[in-house]
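Protocol step 4 of 6: structure prediction from sequence.
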Amino acid sequence: MNLFGNEPTMDFLGALGYAHAAAGHRDEAMRLLERLQNESKHRYISLMALAGVYAGLADKDRVLDQLERGCDLHDPLMTWMKADVRSTSSATKNDIGECYSGWA
């Protein structure tokens, strides 16, 4: 029984995009980021998936933008923000703490 069909989940694609970016495969990371962005036009994609790819690309401003938007939208995956190496690798703990404090 295949619960997800033949397509990978968007969260998986975000993690894969991070891995490609962190490994220096920028073109593949950008392709996955574009796929996530296109899919987000048709359905909700966790902003943690996008933030992860931007983190791998070392784009701190876009990481923080995605995390802030995710907090504003109360994205359920934001509860993992402080523990997720993808988001903390590009963003400082103070930046993340400010965003996360809005959930209290």
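Step 5 (inspection) to follow. The chain has a mean pLDDT of 78.
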